[in-house]
């Protein structure tokens, strides 16, 4: 299953109707956009659409309506099992709310991976006032919440909710024993998830080429009978750099290494999510903290570990966008550029498909603009030669 077309009307930054055609095959999408051009609104459109079927706090489309128009908006996703199958279109709007309750959308929401730069900060920057990085809330309530125990068919989030109280009186021995047993079940489940997560994180982190190793330290949640509270909600991130443990790694390592650690944790957790026919992975400006050379491993990781996913990747860096286009090719990817036009009242996003050079040459040929046709034809030829030489380590003179 892949998304083949995205149609957005009057949602957040989009004040009118916008369409992005991903072809019948449902290609991946790389988006370049200036800050404020609407690329993050596209990211949120996908995320909120998928979540609207299961998140009770996020069911009202009107909360995200473009503020400059009263014309009701919507988000429509067209989905195919393959390029030869029937296309089904699902809508989320103020008028239509039930279509995202479909099992396909709900499963996709549970298995999805959505990551932006602000999310990365939860693994280091938000802990700058502390000497340690506690990932308990991030892993338990977000990254691993939907992961399933194959024996019980229960999610970690369900096991966590079971121990949230109300808690028994101090003299209720049987009830106290029951809550302690439930806590033990939760602890065992989290230990098991971490056992699965560790090797995946290490494997992906190694792709960045840093001499950095990490581990998760979790001693188990305990019940405080006197205070009626859950104590020891700590899951500490331990980092070794050149085989030396760094006590406050988030205050010591540079941004590139911290970003690599964060990306590795997030992407690894996605690999533990439940299966779904529609698998979506969206990364919104997550490469900000990495220099140019360390962004290539991310593309390699996406290609190696997320082959079955439909990937949506956005960036504000035009130079990186152009380089990534050459690296990714045209077979499985589409490319779109977002800009904005300023009016007297507000800024309007402009969305244009970035077509292959040969396609552009053909279009100008049909318009009898031979000069423009020749420019794009030459550029296409130069790109072919460059790619040929790059694969064979030949110098282009």
CATH topology of the largest domain: Rossmann fold
Characterize the largest beta sheet: strand count, sense, and whether it forms a barrel. Answer: 6 strands, mixed
Look at the helices and sheets and give the structural class: alpha/beta
What's the multimeric state? single chain
Approximate helicity band: 25-40%
Q: Strand order, main sheet: write it out.
A: 6-14-15-3-16-17
Report the span from N to C terminus.
44 Å
Task: Please explain how this structure is put together.
This protein is an alpha/beta fold. The chain has 3 domains: 1-112 and 276-354, P-loop containing nucleotide triphosphate hydrolases (Rossmann fold), CATH 3.40.50.300; 120-275, Glutathione S-transferase Yfyf (Class Pi), Chain A, domain 2, CATH 1.20.1050; 356-397. Helix content is 37%, strand content 24%. The protein has 12 helices and 17 strands. It has helices spanning 39-51, 103-111, 117-120, 136-143, 156-161, 173-206, 249-252, 255-270, 296-305, 318-328, 357-366, 370-391; strands spanning 2-11, 14-21, 28-33, 74-80, 88-93, 113-116, 148-149, 154-155, 212-217, 222-224, 229-231, 236-241, 244-246, 280-284, 310-315, 333-342, 347-353. The chain has a 6-stranded mixed sheet, sandwiched between helices. It has a 4-stranded antiparallel sheet with strand order 2-1-4-5, with helices on one face. It has a 3-stranded antiparallel sheet with strand order 9-12-13. The radius of gyration is 24 Å and the shape is globular. It starts with a strand and ends in a 6-residue tail after the last helix.
